[in-house]
TrEMBL record:
<feature type="binding site">
    <location>
        <begin position="119"/>
        <end position="120"/>
    </location>
    <ligand>
        <name>S-adenosyl-L-methionine</name>
    </ligand>
</feature>
<comment type="similarity">
    <text>Belongs to the methyltransferase superfamily. NTM1 family.</text>
</comment>
<dbReference type="InterPro" id="IPR008576">
    <property type="entry name" value="MeTrfase_NTM1"/>
</dbReference>
<dbReference type="GO" id="GO:0005737">
    <property type="term" value="C:cytoplasm"/>
</dbReference>
<feature type="binding site">
    <location>
        <position position="69"/>
    </location>
    <ligand>
        <name>S-adenosyl-L-methionine</name>
    </ligand>
</feature>
<dbReference type="GO" id="GO:0071885">
    <property type="term" value="F:N-terminal protein N-methyltransferase activity"/>
</dbReference>
<feature type="binding site">
    <location>
        <position position="135"/>
    </location>
    <ligand>
        <name>S-adenosyl-L-methionine</name>
    </ligand>
</feature>
<keyword id="KW-0808">Transferase</keyword>
<keyword id="KW-0949">S-adenosyl-L-methionine</keyword>
<protein>
    <recommendedName>
        <fullName>protein N-terminal methyltransferase</fullName>
        <ecNumber>2.1.1.244</ecNumber>
    </recommendedName>
</protein>
<keyword id="KW-0489">Methyltransferase</keyword>
<dbReference type="GO" id="GO:0005634">
    <property type="term" value="C:nucleus"/>
</dbReference>
<feature type="binding site">
    <location>
        <position position="74"/>
    </location>
    <ligand>
        <name>S-adenosyl-L-methionine</name>
    </ligand>
</feature>
<dbReference type="InterPro" id="IPR029063">
    <property type="entry name" value="SAM-dependent_MTases_sf"/>
</dbReference>
<feature type="binding site">
    <location>
        <begin position="91"/>
        <end position="93"/>
    </location>
    <ligand>
        <name>S-adenosyl-L-methionine</name>
    </ligand>
</feature>
<dbReference type="GO" id="GO:0032259">
    <property type="term" value="P:methylation"/>
</dbReference>
<dbReference type="Pfam" id="PF05891">
    <property type="entry name" value="Methyltransf_PK"/>
</dbReference>
Amino acid sequence: MTSRTATDEASFYSNAEDYWKEISPTVDGMLGGYGSISNIDINGSKTFLQRFLGDGEGKTGSGCALDCGAGIGRITKRLLLPLFKTVDLVDVTQEFLDKAKTYLGEEGKRVGNYFCYGLQDFVPESGRYDVIWIQWVVGHLTDDHLVDFLRRCQKALRPNGLIVIKDNVSYEGVIPDEVDSSVCRDLNIVCSLVRRAGLRIVHQEQQKNFPKELYQVHTLAIR
């Protein structure tokens, strides 16, 4: 890595951290002003995830989940805590994790850990998780760091565990966002990075009924 590349990478991450520090710790803040889509998002995710959960051969357990880029715990509260015995949260912004402790209410007692890390630096515990949910955050990782993180996630899965990426997808190529210091990749690129990590996509679908002005959003189940 050249010094110029290292400098660019450092600013890519620090600019994103600075951006999120200025965002309100609310559902609307987590969703960029589109708090109204939260129910549609959660319902789509629940339908997607429940096809993998349950008893029987090849089914994913419901012991422990990890919410990556968790923010104030919107997904933890509405999707993961109703389906799993324990949930861990990881986010780069401490204020969001502090807010989560009140936002999650009584059910928050079943949160195991609040980790304050960027995903490029986070090492999940080996063999701990049935599901690792990664939503609207892969654009904050460089290609190499995303591949490395997915490899670490694979080691953190329990038998028949599942990694889920749900994120914006561009129509072609990589589109940078200077405002929040992220990128939006097309589906072929995301899939190629998954394969580079030594993983395979077992199911993929597009989220329906989001406002037309938003990027298309795809959900990938990965093992």
